[in-house]
Amino acid sequence: MIINLAKSSYEKLVEDAKERFPKEACGLVAGTKEEKVVEVKEVVPMTNLDDSAEHFTLDPQEQFKVAKEIRKQGYELLGNYHSHPFTPARPSAEDKKLAYNEELIYFIISLAESEPILKAFKIEEQELVSELELQIENN
Amino acid sequence: MKIQVNGKKVEYENELTVKELLKEEDVDMPEMVSVELNGEILAKDKFDSQLIKDGDQVEFLYFMGGGSNDGLH
Ligand SMILES: [Zn+2]
To answer: Could you say which of B62, B65, B70 has the minimum Cβ distance to residue A56?
Structure first.
């Protein structure tokens, strides 16, 4: 599976992570999904209920609202993203433990290095991590 | 009965509880799911008893959260 992400969506995500630094940014990712290609069309920053540099929790009420808006646009919820302000772009022990939905794509953006690093993962059985191919498209 | 689940039209033979519906929808961990019934968030302790009726609109979403702290600094 390959994930295509428009440069504008990538930039929106990076900006959100930088803006909320040193706290963790988080949000939802929407778009279209076919057998082999996932197209990200929308990145929606969401409230981090934890308001923390080390954790994030999405607000269910806000999730429901955004999920409906996403459907109205003809997209589906592909996954979520969050930032790692000081650690690498890979799922932490906590990320894995809390990855209840195997259908979702988990995007992690790290600000630990001088340049932001974005990666995308599938997490199965709250433990098995596989990195997905991510392509940032110029548009 | 005809209901909507996450925006999709679905038909079920008989009325069922929220918990039963989640099972039908392949939710493995209902305790990690938030449910909205006709626009209102439903308390988790009602999942067992709340019946879904014809025309109801049900939304469900998994809890989403995590962190960056691995204890591996
Ligand atoms: Zn994390």
So the answer is: B65
Q: Tally Cβ neighbours within 10 Å of residue A22.
A: 11
Number of DSSP helices (H) and strands (E) in chain B, helices first = 1, 8
E-assigned strand segments in chain B: 2-5, 8-11, 16-17, 33-37, 40-42, 51-52, 57-62, 65-67
Chain A contact present for B64, CB below 8 A: yes
| Predicted TM-score of the model (pTM) | 0.93
- The CATH number of whichever domain residue A33 belongs to comes to 3.40.140.10
Helix (H) or strand (E) holding A31: strand A26-33
Q: How many CB pairs under 8 A join A and B?
A: 83
Give A98's contacts (C-beta < 8 A, 6+ positions apart). A126, B63, B64, B65, B66
B72 found inside a domain: no
Domain count, chain A: 1
Task: For chain A of 139 residues, list the mean pLDDT of each consecutive stretch of 10.
Answer: 95 98 98 95 97 96 97 96 96 95 96 97 96 92
B69 assigned to some structural domain = no
Q: What is the CATH number of the domain that holds B35?
A: 3.10.20.30
C-alpha pair distances (Å), A24 with each of A49, A98, B6, B32, B65: 10, 16, 28, 22, 11
